[in-house]
Structures are given as C-alpha cells and as structure tokens.
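Good morning,

Attaching, inline, the backbone tokens for the sequence recovery test we're adding to the shared suite. The designed sequence is right after.
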C-alpha cells in the first residue's frame, strides 16, 4: 500500500469515527449503527458480554437508552484516536468520553476493527470497556479521567 493510499484510508476511517460522534450527539441511533458490517461482533458497555448481528446492528436498544437520558444532545468525544490501516483491514483505539456534567459522565476505552467492504470501511468488531478496581471492591472505576 502506498503512503498516499494509506493516508486516504486513515482519513476515511477518521471520518467514520467522527460520523459516530455526530450521530451520538444528535441521538441518531440509526446513523450510529450504520457503519457496522453485517457480521459485527461487539463487546460493549451494556450486557450481554457479546452482541452479534442482527441484534448488534439494531438501533432500538440505543434509541431506548437515549430516551432514558432525557432531552438534548448526548456528549460524546473521542480522544487520542490512533488509526492503523492496511489494504483491507484496519484498527483504531481511543479513550472516549460520554455524557454531560450533571447527567452522567463516563470515560471508557474503545478498540474498533474495520474491513474495507466494496470500497467502504465498515466496523466488524468493537470493544468498549471500563476498568475496575482490583482492591477487593470490584467496583467499576467510573471516576477515572486521562
């Protein structure tokens, strides 16, 4: 892969990730899941331990979560996004912040795997997680910030 093609692929992947930020902000569940490949496997923040298609590509659960968070935009930011792209496979990782002061605020880790399918980068794997305190309390470490 030439550096020019690699740069173009990385730019396209960054646009996919930015589109997801916009979709979350505007509570557009359909737009948020639209970048998933049909064979998506997700290890997400909500149960169960694994989501697969068609459930993972269904926007109904995300729409219900939006409703539970009142009105207005949902804060969602991707920080320290690192993208590595090959010819047809790529991955990225980041630290993400979701929520808004006074409602809820969560930092979590995210790793996204993508494949180029028919010339378009699609998300085939997503893993989001929060650390937990290994001090015996087993509490989620929701108070961490980078």
């Amino acid at each position: 892969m030439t550096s020019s093609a690699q740069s173009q692929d990385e730019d396209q992947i960054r646009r996919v990730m930015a589109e997801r930020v916009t979709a979350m902000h505007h509570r557009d569940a359909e737009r948020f899941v639209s970048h998933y490949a049909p064979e998506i496997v997700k290890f997400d923040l909500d149960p169960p331990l694994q989501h697969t298609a068609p459930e993972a590509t269904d926007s109904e659960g995300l729409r219900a979560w939006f409703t539970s968070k009142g009105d207005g935009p949902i804060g969602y930011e991707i920080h320290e996004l690192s993208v590595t792209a090959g010819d047809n496979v790529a991955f990225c990782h980041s630290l993400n912040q979701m929520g808004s002061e006074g409602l809820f605020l969560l930092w979590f880790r995210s790793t996204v795997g993508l494949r180029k399918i028919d010339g378009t980068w699609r998300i085939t794997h997503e893993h989001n997680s929060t650390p937990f305190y290994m001090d015996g309390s087993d509490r989620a470490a929701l108070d961490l910030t980078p």
